[in-house]
Give the backbone structure.
Amino acid sequence: QQQVKQSPQSLIVQKGGISIINCAYENTAFDYFPWYQQFPGKGPALLIAIRPDVSEKKEGRFTISFNKSAKQFSLHIMDSQPGDSATYFCAARKGGSEKLVFGKGTKLTVNP
Amino acid sequence: ETGVTQSPTHLIKTRGQQVTLRCSSQSGHNTVSWYQQALGQGPQFIFQYYREEENGRGNFPPRFSGLQFPNYSSELNVNALELDDSALYLCASSLLAAPGAAKLFFGSGTQLSVL
């Protein structure tokens, strides 16, 4: 049973464009939703995270949009750069737990 | 860099063998989590250690075991290796100040191949 569903599996964007990655969850006990960026040969690195009491969080070119009623959240990368080419994972965590449940990942390619 | 170091970086074992993977936490962190990442998949939670005791476990069989030492470093042990154990094993450290509040910092992982 996949608790966090992520789409698309892969994404190709031109430099300067907007990259959008979507995630959906079922468990309403989740109360923390981070996004991780992973480059080949490296571990995931925390990019940005949100809690369900806000609908949007922005850090630089990265924005999380959160829709609690639809149980969906998304990552928007504005002005995408070739250096953003990586695999992105959404994740979720239940309150009181340290266990992160990850989506299957989105491989983003930003063409110059 | 996260300050979380894992060793070895690569390892090749044969089915039925045992393996020990090691992790040094980021300075000041008191919690270590281990994740298994199969090729093309997201990381899956194996277990977490806090103050040298297991503090949560995912859906992994008992042949996956761990230790946390007083200096907060950790080991992951896998007995009776199976082909499906081939994966990237990630260690993540965090500072458990309040339940569910910790940010995880991942190491670069150990790539285990079971032949």
